[in-house]
Amino acid sequence: MIAMAMSCEPSILIADEPTTALDVTVQATILDLMRQLQQENEMGILFITHDLGVIAELAQRVVVMYKGNIVEEGPVAEIFKNPKHPYTKGLLACRPPLTHKLKKLPTVADFMRQENGNLIETGESLEAVTIKFKVTEEELAVRKTDLYKKEPILKVENLATWFPIKKGVFSRTRDYVKAVDDVSFDVFPGETVGLVGESGCGKTTLGRTILRLIEPTSGKVWFNGSELTGLGASEMRAKRRDIQIIFQDPYSSLNPRMEVGAAIMEPMNVHGILANEKERKERVIELLKRVNLTPEHFNRYPHEFSGGQRQRICIARAIALQPKFIICDESVSALDVSVQAQVLNLLNELRDDFGFTYIFISHDLSVVKFMSDRMIVMNKGKIEEMGDPELIYKNPQSEYTRKLIAAIPKGM
């Protein structure tokens, strides 16, 4: 797409979210390429993005828009160090920090709110909000002690998922793509295990293989003492009530011809949850409220919702069966940072309230670091390293992890 845009040697290039949903190393490569082309062609770039870290890396000036209006503009260094508008403060605050752990991410609502069409500022500073949400070392130690007292809810043993490469007239298998290759780890009840790596490293295939949406080539998966890899189709269908997945794309995850209330109710019907349609509808309305939507949304269609709202609907559908274990597969990668912060906070609230266990898959190391109790770094189907996210970030053991961390836009 960049090559197509550059083919006519333009004087100005409008880059509309060109790196959204890309992993950090590919993003860094794209940004380097754009800088190089800009210098060679003396070209102006209007770079549109929700990621202020990318703006800090690339731009000299920044314009902040809110509801169709410019609320702040100026040199990047000045805006980042001394934001004046509460919306700018919210955008800067809601990106997960790499230097410390927060209980929850600040959102735009911590700095401003709308009342009767009027903008009301809370008067909070970036520093005050960060201090309010910061986790102490004692709180972290207590959580980790409580988590690892129990037996693991999930055990993955030497799991492999290989895809054959077939060539020739008779389509004989010549080789294999080893998407997941001899992976082993445990997950404990109530824990969030982050799975991070570049696109193509095997993390999504691993998540889907655990759920048997993709059949493994070898290895075993144990869930609550049952070996999932040895179950028949009907037995596995019954287990799916306890293990759910939130997919990456909230647009293709919902049937456009089905009202969202019916979409949330559908798995409840399949598994026979509650006695009748009336009780199920009442439960769905409760779930909509729990994910910050309203009962009026029950009869609306997916196209009537924003991306963040659709992802909340997908979350409501995943938790409708009250599962014990949820895989979040790149579930916030397509969202802007302010909506992303709201969804991440919601996932943590639901985990604490209902005792969910998560595997959180993402290419964004800063998001994984915020969400996770432990982090697994994957590369070419294998585990590069695994451990405490804070320790991995401060002292990565593998060259691959160091490369991932170095590619993160650091901002100002």
3D architecture notes:
This protein has 412 residues and is of the alpha/beta class. The chain contains 16 helices and 16 strands. It has helices spanning 2-6, 24-41, 52-58, 76-81, 86-93, 126-133, 137-147, 203-210, 233-239, 260-270, 277-290, 307-319, 337-354, 365-371, 389-394, 399-406, and strands at residues 12-16, 44-48, 61-66, 69-75, 112-115, 118-121, 154-167, 172-187, 192-196, 218-223, 226-227, 243-246, 325-329, 357-362, 374-379, 382-387. The strands form five sheets. A six-stranded mixed β-sheet has the order 12-13-14-9-15-16, sandwiched between helices. A hairpin with a 2-residue loop joins strand 3 and strand 4. Helix 10 runs parallel beside helix 12. The protein is globular, with a radius of gyration of 23 Å. The mean pLDDT is 89.
The helix/strand class is alpha/beta
Helix content: 25-40%
Low-confidence region ranges: none
Strand composition percent: 15-25%
Main β-sheet description: 6 strands, mixed
What is the CA–CA distance across the termini?
29 Å
pLDDT averaged residue by residue:
89
The count of helical stretches stands at: 16
Strand arrangement within the widest β-sheet reads 12-13-14-9-15-16
Q: Could you say which overall geometry the principal axes of the C-alpha atoms support? A: globular
What is the CA-based Rg, rounded? 23 Å
Number of separate strands: 16
